[in-house]
Amino acid sequence: MTALQVPQPDKERPSKDVAWYNPDVESNIRPEMRDLLLNYSKIPAEDLVGHITKVRDAAWDICPYPTVGLLLFLDFGIKCTDLPEPRAQLHTSILHTLMQGGKLLDVGCMFGQDLRKMVYEGAPVSSVYGTDLRGDYFPLGYALFKDETIIPQDHFIAADIMDQASPLCRFDGDLDVISTKDVFHCFDYATQIELAMRFVALLKPRPGSRAVGQHVGHISAGVYPTAFKDAGLANMFLHNDESFTRMWEEVGKKTGSRWRVESRMWKIKPHWEPVQVPGQPRGPDNRTLLFAVERL
Ligand SMILES: C[S@@+](CC[C@H](N)C(=O)[O-])C[C@H]1O[C@@H](n2cnc3c(N)ncnc32)[C@H](O)[C@@H]1O
């Protein structure tokens, strides 16, 4: 498997003069993120925009991901407030699992907004972990949420999720929930199968273990080559509901497990449609695919 080859910070700074760098921070602070930043992170309201801008621009220099440029990290992967179906019920049910002693790992967590929200809403700190290929994002997550004294640093693990010998092995068979936002679509189909199989190995081998999240989808499932070569992204496979379900059937066969797949595709916000993001065709056929996969 090929991990993403992201540019090193000492290389030339990525240009902000691209369609997927949105300078309008103010109107992209979703209400639930505003609440989190004001009341969990205690950022004064008048400093919010400057605070987010500073952290976002540091992350842009690490890798000019559309997630960073389009301020998509200001929404959550589980309770996705950008869409008409914010999945409050799923969010509450996961919160309940964590309050009962369950463990969540956010894969490709970048700033780790989903786990911060869980902690803010009452999940024990001991129940949440984040992992990302790039450990450089973790100090930025602490800078954004100002919670060094709340979440211990060893709850963020720099690792390639595909590497079966990585420090993530300590979670093998021990997780109740994996969340992952905007990660599946970074890979080709074969690598997505590998990713899902890694999830199966990490989750508790019992009914009720869950993988949840969202990623970019498309009405016509297939390979969409990307021009976003800087991040090593190529041949991204974008799913629709049918292809995503079929993929988990294949994963079930390969791992001797069975999974109930719920997925729903939503049209992206109309004002994003004209923003051409490399490898993520944005237009009338582009979708956000929300999913929750549960072991039977
Ligand atoms: C599009 S960003 C999404 C970030 C975050 N989940 C969000 O939506 O705000 C994809 C993230 O996946 C991480 N990533 C990519 N390949 C990975 C791998 N092989 N193992 C772990 N993380 C990976 C990247 O470093 C990046 O932070």
UniProtKB/TrEMBL annotation:
GO molecular function per UniProt: transferase activity
Q: Which UniProt keywords apply?
A: S-adenosyl-L-methionine, Transferase
Under the heading InterPro entries, the entry gives: Meroterpenoid_MTases, SAM-dependent_MTases_sf
Which pathway does this polypeptide act in? Answer: Secondary metabolite biosynthesis
Gene3D superfamilies, per database record: Vaccinia Virus protein VP39
Which SUPFAM superfamilies does the entry link to? S-adenosyl-L-methionine-dependent methyltransferases (SSF53335)
The organism's place on the tree of life at top rank: Eukaryota
Family label: Belongs to the class I-like SAM-binding methyltransferase superfamily.
Q: What is this protein called?
A: Methyltransferase type 11 domain-containing protein
Question: Source taxonomy lineage?
Answer: Eukaryota, Fungi, Dikarya, Ascomycota, Pezizomycotina
